[in-house]
Each structure stands twice: as structure tokens, then as C-alpha cells.
Amino acid sequence: MSNGNSSRSGSAPSPARYGFSDVVRAEQQLRAAGWWSDAGPTDEPVVSALSRAPDPDLALLAVDRLREAAADEWPELAKELAADTAVRGGLIGVLGASSAFADHLVAYPQDWRRLRPRPAGERPDVAALTDELVNSVRSADGVLTGTEAISALRGAYRGLLLEVAAADLRPIVERDLAGASFEDVAAGLSDLAVAALRAALVVGAAELTGREGGDSAEDLAVIAMGKTGGRELNYVSDVDVVFVAKSEEALPGATKLASMMMRVAGPAFFEVDAALRPEGKAGALVRTLDGYQSYYRRWARTWEFQALLKARPVAGDVELGQQYVDAVWPQVWTAAEREDFVPDVRSMRRRVEDHVPAELSERELKLGPGGLRDVEFAVQLLQMVHGRSDADLRSPSTVDALRSLGEGGYVARADAADLVESYRFLRTLEHRVQLRRLRRTHLLPELDDKDGLHVLARSVGLRSSGRRSAGEVLVAEYRRHSNRVRRLHEKLFYRPLLEAVAKVPTDALRLTTGAAVQRLAALGYSSPEGALRHIEALTSGVSRRAHIQGALLPMLLDLLANTPDPDGGLLAYRKVSEALAETPWYLRLLRDEGVVAERLAQLLGTSKLVPELLVRAPEVLRLLSDTPALAERDPREVATSLRSAVARHAEPSRAVAAARSLRRHELLRIACADLLGLLPPTEVFRALSSVWAAVLEAALDTSVRDVAARPEWQTVPARIAVIGMGRLGGAELGYGSDADVMFVCEPLPEVPESTAVRFATSVVEQVRRLLGAPSQDPPLEVDIDLRPEGRSGPLVRTVDSYLNYYRRWGEVWEAQALLRARPVAGDSELGERFCTAIDPIRYPDGGLDDARIREIRRIKARVDSERLPRGADPATHTKLGRGGLADVEWTLQLVQLRHGHEHESLRVTSTMRGLDAAVQVGVLDEQDAAELGEAWTLAMRSRNAVMLVRGKSGDQLPKQVRELTAVAAALGYSGDVDTGEVLDDYLRVTRRARAVVERVFYED
User: Fold this and answer.
1) Half-sphere exposure of 491 (CA within 13 A, CB side)
2) Does this UniProt record's set of keywords contain Nucleotide-binding (predicted)?
């Protein structure tokens, strides 16, 4: 393209710098508008905005035309263009994308005022849009008719369409402005189309009133179909409708009115297409409700029920229209039961695709492979198959339906999100190619049309990247989305099990009782008769659920047979299935995602905790097919999500119930990832600790709000921090761990300390009461026995009070307990200040003297002899046994007490980090640290495994073979491991650790 550039002297900027191709003409037009001088732009914001238009030359040409055609309007418009970014972005965005809107503004220059955004919350609804269109044809003598009415309607409609386009395109030019989403644009276009249909009905009735002397408007209902029905219309599209007459007597008048409405709407707005009616264009234009019902029951084909997915009454007699929808809606959701339903839908899609000329296929946004129809057909097929039992899928909107399919587990979440993204992209391209001349088209520019592709790319917000032009970026993005759509279309649309959803064969389970018992015994079930009863309970009856279970169970029986407890696993599967019987996605997820069934069998045949949690947190089941979501969720994200969810509830009991629910979800997610070997042990401990801390934070927040709202307070007089102690402080909790904590408070300015302490005490009492309430979940015990004076001491103290106590009366074991103190909830600054203040207590200057060392050893020996439960085996007790958790932790803590004052790296609350630090500073031998760390990790993992296997906490390794086999599986041993080997490994590791303890802790 020639740019018309002429030689220029000096260094004055050229319009070429702003993206104009015809530089000479651009400079002339800019000068005429008063935006350019010899020194360059005189109104930089306007010229820069023009440079960001999809087509700067087209936008400037249109502005020049508008300036010449509307001299009276120009001064005010020019002033607003310079001052108002919304008007500037809207006008230049529209004019740079659409020559048709330039023509409209030249004809109706006053419509530039529509580019002023309406105030928030004042977006016009269908009624307001209808009023505006109808008012355009009202006169002193009544409603205009004929060409006069059509002309008025066309102008008013284009003006309203201009508002939608401006909201759509404004952020392309002024990127700081919020724009309308694709869904908002499509909904706005649909609402405007409905208003246009209603206005056409008014004018049509007026035409008939003048000619026939009758009015049939109350005898006719207009049903929107297709994209109008789904509120996802294009800028330029036929509007699909079906007409319903109130009665046989009203049929002639209703037919005349429908015909007249179509004749008005065509030249005024868009073509009204009634071809989706029974028998198509050969059928009657209007039928009664009984006529439609009779046809759909006897003659309707599959595609007609598919079309009814989007049926919506929009004009005329709305009550009659709703009666039509109510009558046909149930038939939509039984259509999938028709013989050859799925093949019919697939065949229809192939026929549509075959009609696309080969030379246009690559550019066809709508009908070609990877186009919009691929998304819509796949979504509609899935809706009609699965929507029979799940009302959440019955949305007429493609995007909403896709979201529901993803959320319900019928489509993988990632697949649903990808399809939504690609559908939006393709629909946005479709909108932009239609906007250029406001013509119905679904074709991209020719792929060698660089200028056309460049403008289209800019109109959707794409720019050049590296060596690739904007047009090349657009083509690459189009192909990426098109290929993705085609891949997902084929994955979903041709899913083999779609045809078998309601007729899964059950021949594999139709055995004689004797044969079934023999088969189950051969698989390794210790009670085949009991297993058979579970199978019969799951597959009895003729329900769709029973058929799907019949298809699943042969695979599940084999998978469960490879777990430590097949009988327990099958019982757990039955309980979970019965508990989730009304959860519509449960069986489909197992059926369609093989990895979910495989992992679920492994979990149920190993753990009693998982099925107990699963029936109350079934949503976690979906994560089994998504390893990153199952195992890679950041604990900080979990904590943030939990606190945000709880903050929505003002009532404390409801807030804590929400916290329990989210904790249950996280416990189950972590347990599944742990048992499947997807989470390292340290991540398991950290995640469990983070969840506990988040629950504490949520309970504290809601308790502070509640107590502060009481009449005796009506304010928050104190800051409160929760200090994690023990394994919570070390971020090393297990599944059944209590939360050892202390509470610190600080009065706000001018508040007496006693008042602050009293307030904080009330808060703490409420936290403990809320969290300690009975529950089916693993308990939430808040243990504050490590506070000064133990159970007889105050629940809350200030920092100074704590320091006074520790300095005057603190014992060595209390300094030892403080080694793991860290802020976990509440006021973080106060918590950090508390921990800094107690550093001299827990890391005493000069270390420990001999007397204090002997005291620690004496206490440890007493713990070993007195706290081990009666009858417990000290060799296999994970907490207090030889080489167990207490041995390792006390050894490290003695090292920290003795050397923490001189080695800052030892001042950590984590056991494993503390062992590493002790090696680095030379106060612990590397081999000793390795053996202590191995024993500690194995004891923690074994303790967790016992909780997972039994469903309740326990510190003793089980003696029963089946339980010990399950513990071995939870620890990652292979399925055929000898339990003796598991015990030998544990005893060997802890024996070595105990030797280190004797040498380092007792200096023996």
C-alpha cells in the first residue's frame, strides 16, 4: 500500500509515527480537526487514541466525515473527545473497526452522545430498550407504519447497537477503561434483539389494525431459539423464532401478525427465521400448543429437540410462551433415550461440516472443523445425555453449560476452561468481522490479506510480537484455538461411553452365586459371601445407577484385590456409593476417568480415614484425576481460601462449620496425595500444620468479631496473637495431632492492661469452645497446657507478663518448650515481637549449666518411664518408644538450648532443619544427624500411617497382620512385602537413633 508520504524537513514528527498509512491525507485531516500543527500533534491524547484504533486511517477518515457532516455537533464532540476517555475510546474504537457505524453517525450525528457510558447500574434492560424503540415510531397520530416506521426503527436500533459496540471496543483504544466481557456483549445484543422483536410486533399489530380492523397481539407468543434464546447473539445474525397461537380460533389472526412482524423486522433490524418450526419452511408458520405437542411426540427428529435446548419466550403473550416451554422442555430431556440418538447428532454435525466449501474451510469460524459449531454440538450432546439427571446442565448458554459440565465432572475442568476460552476467542473474531460492514459473515480475511488480518488482529487486542506482525500473531492464535477446539470436540463428542450411559452391560456380574463366591475367593476376598452381598446391593434393580455400577465393579473388584484389605475396601466402596448416590457426577467420574477408579480402589483398600472423610467431602474425588491439584496446592493458598470462606459468615458457629468443612476437604486431599505417594513427608507435615493454623486464624477472627460486638465491649480493645508450640510450632503436625498453643495479647493505646486481658480471655474461651465442639471429623483440640503455670495459669498474658514469669519462675522444661514457639495466627507483628522477646529465655546466654542439663535428662527419663502407656511395646511406640519422636526431639532441643545462643542458624522450630543446622555449625556429627532424622521421619510417617489405616490416632505400630500390611502400603512398601520386613526396618532405624540419643543426649 502506498503511504503517500512526502519529504519533510526538520525533526517534526510525522503522522506515520502514529500508525497512519496515508500520511499526507492523515496530516490534512488532523489539521482540519485542529489536532496537528507544524510542530506535531496539538492534542496528543486524541492522536494517540487514533493510533491505537484497529484501523487508524479508517477511524480518522470517519472522524473527518463526521466533522464535515455535523458542523453543529462538532465543537461539543471535539471538546469531549479531548477531555473524556470513555467517549474518546468508544468513538475511535467503533470508527476504527466499522465503516457501517461511521455511515450511521454521519446520518445521525447526535448519536455520538450515546458513547457516554451509562452510570453504573443503569444498563438498559429489555423493557427499557423496547420503550426506546417503540417511542421512535410513536407520533401524535399513534404508531407509525410502513416505510416511515421501518426507517425510524432502523435508526433507533443502530443507535442502540452503537452503544453495545462502544462498550465492547472502548478498551481496545483506552486500555485503562474496563470493557464489556464477551458474555455481556452477547447478552446485550440478545436483549436488543428481543426488544426489536417486541417493537416489530407493535408496528405489525398497528399495520394489521389499520388494514384488518383487528388486533391479534394477545393471541401470539414468540419463542426465541438459537443464539437469541441462549442470550449469546452476534452483531449480525438471523434471529430464530417459533410462533405459538393461543387457540385454533386465534390461529388465522396470529399467523397474519407473525408474518407482518417478520416483514417489519427484516428491513428494520434483521431477518427473522422461523425455519426451526415443525416441518421447517414447508410447515405451518404458527401452531397451537396442542399442535406442537402432538408433533413433537409423534414426528420430531433429533435435531428438533436439540434446537429446543435454547427455547425462550420473548414477545407477545409471555404466559402462553412459558406454557409452550413448559410443555416441550420434558421432551428435550428424554430425547437422548431415542434409538440412535447419539449417532443422529454426530451425523448431523458431519453433514453441516461437509457443506463447507473446501476453499473456505480454513477461514470458516462457524461451520468448519475447529469452529464454533464443534463447541456447540459437543456441548449440546453432553447436555442432552447427562442433563436428564442433572438440572445444572440445562442452561441455554453455551459458556454457562460448559462451566456446568466442567463443574459437574462430565468434562475435565481443564478441558471446559480451554473450550470456554477458545469459544470466546472465536466468537469475538466473529463479532469483529461482522462489525466492519455490519454484514452477516463468519469468514476470516484471506490469509494473504495482510492489511485485513492486521486490522482484525488489532480489533481483538493483538499486537505484533517479536518478528511476527499482528496479523501473523492473529493467524497463530486462531490456529491454536481452532486446533484445540477440534481436539476437544473429538474427545468429547465421540466419547464411546456416551452411547452406553443408560445401558451398561452387566453380564460380567450375572453369575450363579456359587460361581461368584469362587471368583471372589480366587481374587483374595476373605469373606466372598459378604463381598457378594455388597455387589448385589450395588447392582440390584434396573436403575441407571445400578447399570453403571455393573460396568464398574468387575474392574473395581480386581483393583481392590491388589490392596491390603479387599473386603474392607469393597465395604468402604459400598458405603461411599450409597452416601453419594444422589451426587450426579460420582459414578460418571469413575466411569469416564480410569485413573480415578484406580486410585480410589487403592485408597479404600488401605485406609479407613479416607472413606470416612470422602462421604462428607466428595468433591475431593474429582482431584484424583488431576495430580497437580491433588498434590501441588500451595498451603498458603489453602490458608487464604479458608480464611476468606470463613470471613463470609458472621455467626461464629457457622463460621467454624465452614472452617471444619474446608479443613475436612484439605485433610482428605492431603491424605489421598500421601497414600498415593504424591507428597513428600515434609510437605505432608507442612500442609497439615498450615491447615490447622488457618483454622485457628479463622476461629480467632470470628471470635474477636463476636466478642467485640457484645454490649459489654462494642469495640476491640486488644491485639491477640496465637503462638504455635510443639509440632504446630515446628510445622510438623500429623493427621491426629492436637494444636499446642499459647495466646498473647496487647492493649490498644489508652486501654488498661486488665481490660485487654479480660477481652482476650473471652475470645480464647470462645475459640476453644467452638473448635472443641463434637464432630465426626478428626478432633480440633486446642491444647494450652504449655502456658505458664499450666492448667492453673491464665489463658492469656501480655508479653511483659510472660517475660516476668519466665525470668522469675520459669523452669528449664519451659525454656525447652519455647524452642518451638512461632506465630501461627492473629496479629503477626505482636507474635514476632513475643518470639523475639523470649529468645534470651530459650537460647540462654552461655548455654546451660550442668545442673540444668541434669534436670532435662531427669525429666526425660521420667517421661520414658511414666508416660508410656501400660502394655505398650517401647520398641514400636512411635512417640515415646526407643528411637521414637520424643528421643529425637529432646536430643535436638538439648543441643539448641546449649548452643543456640552462639549459633543463630540453630534457632529454628523445625526438627529436620534443626538437625541440618546442628551439623553445619559442628555441634552434631553428620552421621548422627542422618540417623536421628531418618528415625524421626519414619516415626512421624508411621504414626500418620496408623491414623490413615485405622481412622483414629495411635502411636503404636499394629500387631494384627492385615493392619500392619496396610500400614506398610501407606508407607510405600510394595503389595507383596512381608510384614516382618516392615517391623525389622522400623526396629533397625530406631535402634540406631536410640544409640545416638544415648551418646549425645545422655553422654553415655
Assistant:
1) 14
2) yes
